[in-house]
Amino acid sequence: MRTFKKLPVLNIVRRPGRSAALMALTALLSFTVFGALVLTQSLGRGMASLERRLGADIMVVPEEAAGKSGLESIVLQGNPTYFYMDDTKLDEVRAVDGVGETTTQLYLASLAASCCSAKVQLMGFDPATDFTIEPWIRDSYSGELGEMEIVVGSGISSSEGDRLLFYDVPCTVAAKLTETGTNYDRCVFAGEDTIRELIKSSIGKQLNQFKGTDPQSVVSCILLKVKDGADIDEVVSGINGSVANVKAIRTASLVSGTAKSLSGISGIIRMAAAIVSVIAFIILAIAFSMQIHERKREFAILRVFGVSKGSLAKSIFAEIAMTCFLGGLAGAGIFACVMIPFSGAVQGWLNVPMLMPGAAAVTGYLGITLLLCVAAGALSSAWNVLRVSRSEISQGLREEK
Amino acid sequence: MLLRADSISKVYERRGREFPALNQTDFSLEEGCLCVVQGRSGSGKTTLLNILSGILAPTSGSVFLDQADMYAMNDSELSRLRGENFGIIPQGESAVSALTVLENVLLPASVFTKEDAFIERAQDLLDRMRIGKLSSVLPRELSGGEMRRMAIARALIRDPKVVFADEPTSDLDDANTREVFGILKETARSGKAVLVVSHEKCVPEYADIVYRMEGGSLNRCV
Ligand SMILES: Nc1ncnc2c1ncn2[C@@H]1O[C@H](COP(=O)(O)OP(=O)(O)OP(=O)(O)O)[C@@H](O)[C@H]1O
Ligand SMILES: [Mg+2]
What we know:
Chain A is α+β, with helices and mostly antiparallel strands. Helices cover 57% and strands 14% of the residues of chain A. The radius of gyration of chain A is 30 Å and the shape is elongated. The mean pLDDT of chain A is 88. By secondary structure, chain B is α/β, with parallel strands linked by helices. In chain B, helix 6 links the parallel strand 7 and strand 8 (193-197).
């Protein structure tokens, strides 16, 4: 290997103190850019996932449950909850103008008590009509869910084949779902018949607040799509006007609050990233200018030994590119170290759905970030590098060491 | 004639005012000759040496190496000429701080060619300079004299036609000074042209030609 060609590397390796400040600055830039990319993407994917999971245009719940808003509290707040209405409400809803596909869900909350393996939200769906949960379960499980078979969200710590106890009824885990970034990840899904068994047992044990309920003739929630061309708001008021004791809610309005806070958070993240990036760029430019000035004499020495202006500029740029690449890698690495263990905490703290992008996408963002760091280094130093490489050699030799 | 300067001069600009550092000067240097330039601080010695060694363009006049007009060349041609034909020992400390002693010596050889063929020669030169054992040490661990000898070894690595040394003994004791002049003398005897700027009293013992620089004018003494 040729000493002159190796010089950029040796300058970094053997004079780590000199490169450290520059690397730290690039690391800050990379942490910010990479972090902003990953976070905003996670939020966007979380939102998309949430909308996909909702799947329905309108949700109908018992009037007294409307305060808790059913799905909203389950999907967005994650408080296990349950409530019931007569299943004849389904026929009444179906009779309303503009109502298209319908399906029902049945809820139950398990307890953190000896009768249950864990305190989770239990959701029963009707496999014959379901269009919100099943398509997603199909991604992980292709068989039919049998009696007392359950599918668990990715956030529940049990795996296929495990047995879980709910109100002393043993259930078998048939599959575990892929992550959604929403509170669905902490739900347990089963066919409605299975949930009915569990409700029966909970009533028998005096552990259900709706004591007089007949599990066979109730549902918790009706989900529906409107017919093509029908106006969702009109259908909502149609149901609220003609079906007694229920409340119809437009699902989009459930998530619109979330969507708003998401775009607000994304905006803040982007803004903060832009400000930090600009500041980092400016400091980087100042730091490069100082360091290049400090090393003028050494650059002149290289010129003395036959290095042309162009080769000198190349050599300095190579060193800067490597410094920024390494700094960028460090910054992204630090972000990953902070983000991976604490993503759950961040999600809980922001109280919004978040879904980390896949490995390929993250690699892509890393690539973009590193490219940006190298470009930032080259741009912020360009003027000084060109100036020093073109300056008079004898002038450089006169600089004090 | 190896190196020839035709009526070169240098005028610096200082705060908008012209400052003549070197008056019109003719100069020539031959193979096998150790030539010393003496003179007060600020008299223009480094300016002359820089112009002759292809580092500083003169305000007027030309410098020829063999028949080549150095300052008619573009930067990469002149850089190459400097690297291939000149061994330069700049005034003051001149080590590249991230390179070991051996790498510093090999540096001029690595700019245009693979340095492998020079490694043995580099080690030889370091041995001759009595710093062979320090070859893998970084310059910041060297004494002033060792640093100087490293700079000499580095100037000789490519077997240059002309060696330029700007006050190569300024921070050395008497014994070291004599040693350095001994090496430069030996270099001249081996057929190279050597131009040294120096104030040392022992100069007459070694020099073939001695010039005196006074206020930008060069006068031959010996
Ligand atoms: N770039 C410059 N701009 C203005 N004046 C300069 C410049 N370089 C040198 N000078 C002036 O030119 C004169 C000659 O400088 P030079 O470095 O050649 O002197 P010198 O004889 O080598 O001195 P010393 O023995 O101290 O090294 C000095 O007065 C110096 O101040
Ligand atoms: Mg001088």
